[in-house]
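To the structural biology subgroup,

Please find below the input and predicted structure for Post-GPI attachment to proteins factor 3, which we are adding to the shared reference set this quarter. The sequence is reproduced verbatim from the submission form. If anyone notices a discrepancy with their own records, reply to this email rather than editing the shared folder directly, so we keep one authoritative version.
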Amino acid sequence: MFCWFWSTVFHIRDFVFTERMDYFAAGANVLYGLYLAPIRIFKLYRPTYACILRIWGVVCIAAYTAHLYFLLGIRWDYAYNMAANVVVGSITNILWTYWSVRHYTRLKSFWAAWPGLIVMWLIMAMSLELLDFPPVAGALDAHSLWHAATILPGMWWYNYVHVRPC
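Predicted structure (tokenized):
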């Protein structure tokens, strides 16, 4: 919700502050995906992994803090920000694809394929963001289509995470 909120605010009012909040919220969203994936995939939520879970949380918070420090304190760099988000998102996608393939081949259950299918959808949607094109009819550009393409997988993912145990 935080990510969508700041994206909406930025696209309504393009100021330095709203742009940065859009980027920071998007980065937090992508990094949270990476934070959550190993917890669900490797069952780090179990009490026996409490120490590892704490360390993983500190590593993720430190990485996000370092990212913000670089952008705000050293140099505001769009290419670095995009690359950082693509790398973190790709690692998350690889983890969920691994999980999905492993469970689907073992269980032959369609619900086990969901994470892999959602990852495929998001990769196709991300190609709109990475392979930008000029607006069609002066209104419909790759970025707007990317935003539209992220609505359904968000709802699909929420349904999967809250209905199916990993």
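Summary notes: The chain has one domain: 2-163. The mean pLDDT is 92.

Regards,
Lab coordination
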